[in-house]
Amino acid sequence: MKLTKQSIIAITFCSLLAATPLAFAEGGHGHDESAKHDNHNSGTSGMFLKKKEVDGYTVSFHVMKAKPGKEMGGTHDFMIKVEKDGKALKDVVMNTKVKHPDGNAESKKTMKMGDWLMAGYDLGHTGKHQLMILFKTADGKKHKGGIYYP
């Protein structure tokens, strides 16, 4: 069977959409929108939140230690929210990548958690991790950005 590039993209996109509803039964990750986080960065033991502009979108990068017994793929939850004009985008498809201090890298798809997208990674070891995202908006455009943790 011959697959065109568009067919492969469509299949990948549908697969991502089908996988995102998994693991939503426990939504309590402490993301009270009324709380003031404003770029709080307390390192590996506390909460980490940075906002960055990416192609006109406001992207919030949030890392927190996973609750014992609630780990979803790692010791830490890497959470991302994409906003335009103060409103969270609901139709974003995103992949994440982490480059660890030892040079090893891994990529994961995100799961939707309310207004946030999440992937679990092991980020407890010493050193700076490069956290990267690649997301596609409803207009079909791709956007990429990243930060360092902690």
- E-strand count: 10
Q: What is the multimeric organization of the chains shown? A: single chain
CATH T-level topology: Immunoglobulin-like
Q: Give the low-pLDDT segments.
A: 12-45
Q: How many domains is the backbone divided into?
A: 1
Helix share, percent: 10-25%
Structural class: mainly beta
* Average pLDDT rating: 79
CATH architecture: Sandwich
Q: Report the span from N to C terminus.
A: 47 Å
Major sheet description: 6 strands, antiparallel
Shape: globular
DSSP helix count? 1
> In the CATH hierarchy, what is the superfamily?
Macroglobulin (MG2) domain
Instruction: Work out the radius of gyration.
Output: 16 Å
The secondary-structure element order is HEEEEEEEEEE
**Beta-sheet strand percentage?**
35-45%
The CATH class, by name, is Mainly Beta
Q: How would you characterize the overall build of this protein?
A:
A hairpin with a 2-residue loop joins β3 and β4 (87-88). The strands form 2 sheets. Strands 1, 2, 3, 4, 7 and 8 form a 6-stranded antiparallel sheet that branches. This protein has a 4-stranded antiparallel sheet with strand order 6-5-9-10. The chain is built from 1 helix and 10 strands; from the N terminus they run αββββββββββ. With 150 residues, it is mainly beta. It has one domain: Macroglobulin (MG2) domain (Immunoglobulin-like), CATH 2.60.40. Mean pLDDT is 79; it is low at 12-45. It is globular.
Describe the secondary-structure layout.
Blueprint: H1 5-19, E1 48-54, E2 57-65, E3 76-84, E4 87-88, E5 93-99, E6 105-109, E7 111-113, E8 116-121, E9 129-136, E10 142-149
